[in-house]
Specification:
- The strands form two sheets. This protein has a four-stranded antiparallel sheet, with no helix packed on it. The protein has a two-stranded antiparallel sheet with strand order 1-4.
- The protein contains nine helices and six strands.
- The protein has 478 residues and is an alpha+beta fold.
- The chain has a domain of 310 residues: Outer membrane efflux proteins (OEP).
Length: 478
């Protein structure tokens, strides 16, 4: 027999748990971000804290203020509507929401109705009276079942499902931002490759005229066979570049078709003459408080995963305590169907049940240990997400100013290469320099223009990366 003194503490704990709606889920504590307080070049003024980041600076539709070209905006709208990966992300949210509703429903009583009937014939040799008997039984009514969640087992499971739903919603926002960035990047690549194709075609035309010039000079004995061979080799090189960039332009169209989920991108029309100003990430200072990373959808999703793990821990802890389920029915019962609703046919039942496993060979303890380990794994993922975000934002901020300096230098290089090319052609026609100088100047000019366009692409892609790494952009005027 169990001593009364051993029962009283348990009864007292159960009573207090019932009155307080006890939950054994650990309280959520925000993990300390394993990164410096500032990301970028600037540091806060002495004696001042980090500037808070307003929530309104991060909007799901903020891409309209970042990617301002109308053609690009139409492509992004099409992609958000038709991209298959985006559709799957939305469907995952719907599935997580349904799962949350499933886990939440046991917190409320389950109510239903029932109706049943049975007829049974017993032969004489089996009947206690020695006569054949036929018995009937009919019943109808309502039933209810409810688990008294004294220790928070059901609430822990519901909390886990809710946080997983919120994490899935954050993952959908991350997929949204990623898709916008990928479409913008592919479109910028198409614009630059179109410009490179035009540059290659112009170079090819220039070198065709050069071949014609050298051929005329060769016929009158001014140019040599070597000059003519070098001119034709340069022309073949230009034709190769034209074919290469023509291929890249068509492949860029295919990428855009995949990302937007629509064949309409095949009618892109004329590409913009320049990519400058097509991506506008305004008002982002050189240094930001690292708290800005908490707005990234992947970090938000990781935080919800930690909260879900806490709910799972609460449910695992509650499994060590009794489960109390109340089941009741109320209705009518009769041996004849005609008497089912007659007076005096009322029937009811009340079936309380208490479940408490005694020996499970460590099953509940293992489940609790597993829940703790899973929570630690999610904390590690959260910290990892912040570290990755810190590096992405820092890289984008550093590259932003450096790309501008690099573009200035390349623009100066193109100007000098154009001047050098013009002088070399004049000196060759005057017979001062050999044709080798002209070829060298042509290659230098083509490479400089190609490097300038490629760097402009990288500079714009860096702004796209800044938009993405900041979790959807930074809107200066919000």
């Amino acid at each position: 027999m169990i001593a009364t003194s051993n029962i009283r503490p348990w009864l007292a704990a159960a009573t207090l748990a019932a009155l307080a709606g006890c939950s054994f889920a650990p309280k959520f504590e925000q993990p300390v971000a394993p990164v410096p307080t500032m990301v970028g070049d600037a540091e806060p003024a002495q004696g001042q804290g980090a500037t808070p980041v307003p929530d309104t600076a991060f909007k799901l539709d903020g891409w309209r203020q970042v990617f301002i070209d109308p053609q690009l905006q139409r492509l992004i709208e099409t992609g958000l509507e038709h991209n298959r990966d985006q559709r799957e992300a939305v469907l995952n949210v719907e599935a997580a929401r349904a799962q949350y509703r499933i886990q939440r429903s046991p917190l409320l009583p389950q109510v239903g109705v029932y109706g049943e009937g049975a007829r049974q014939r017993t032969p004489a040799d089996l009947s206690p009276t020695g006569q054949t008997t036929t018995l009937g039984q009919y019943a109808a009514g309502g039933m209810a079942s409810y688990e008294l969640d004294f220790f928070g087992r059901l609430r822990g499971m519901s909390t886990e499902a809710r946080e997983r739903y919120l994490a899935t919603e954050a993952a959908r926002r991350s997929a949204h931002i990623s898709l916008v960035s990928e479409i913008a990047g592919a479109w910028l690549a198409w614009v630059i490759d179109s410009q490179l194709l035009e540059l290659a075609q112009q170079t090819e035309q220039t070198r065709e005229r050069t071949v014609e010039l050298v051929e005329r000079q060769y016929q009158v004995g001014i140019a040599t066979q070597l000059d003519l061979s070098q001119a034709k080799g340069a022309l073949h090189d230009a034709r190769s570049s034209t074919a290469e960039f023509d291929r890249l332009v068509e492949q860029d169209r295919n990428v855009l078709q995949l990302l937007t989920g629509s064949a309409d991108v095949l009618d892109l029309g004329q590409a913009p003459r320049t990519v400058d100003g097509l991506v506008h990430v305004a008002g982002v200072p050189a240094g930001l408080p690292s708290s800005v990373l908490l707005n990234r959808p992947d970090v938000v999703a990781a935080e919800h995963e930690i909260r879900a793990a806490n709910g799972n821990i609460g449910a695992a802890r509650a499994a060590f305590f009794p489960r109390i389920v109340l089941t009741g029915t109320a209705g009518t019962a009769s041996a004849d169907l005609s008497g089912l609703f007659s007076g005096g046919s009322g029937a009811w039942s009340f079936l309380p049940r208490l479940d408490l496993p005694i020996f499970d060979f460590g099953n509940r303890r293992a489940n609790l240990d597993l829940a703790h380990v899973q929570r630690d794994i999610r904390i590690n993922r959260y910290e990892r997400a912040i570290q990755v975000g810190f590096r992405e934002v820092a890289d984008a901020l550093v590259a932003r100013s450096r790309y501008l300096r690099q573009l200035d230098a390349l623009e100066d290089l193109v100007e000098e290469a154009e001047r050098t090319h013009g002088l070399s052609v004049q000196r060759y026609e005057m017979g001062v320099d050999s044709f080798l100088q002209v070829l060298d100047a042509q290659r230098t000019l083509f490479n400089a223009r190609q490097a300038l366009l490629g760097t402009r692409l990288q500079q714009q892609l860096n702004l796209v990366q800044l938009y993405r790494s900041l979790g959807g952009g930074w809107l200066e005027n919000t």
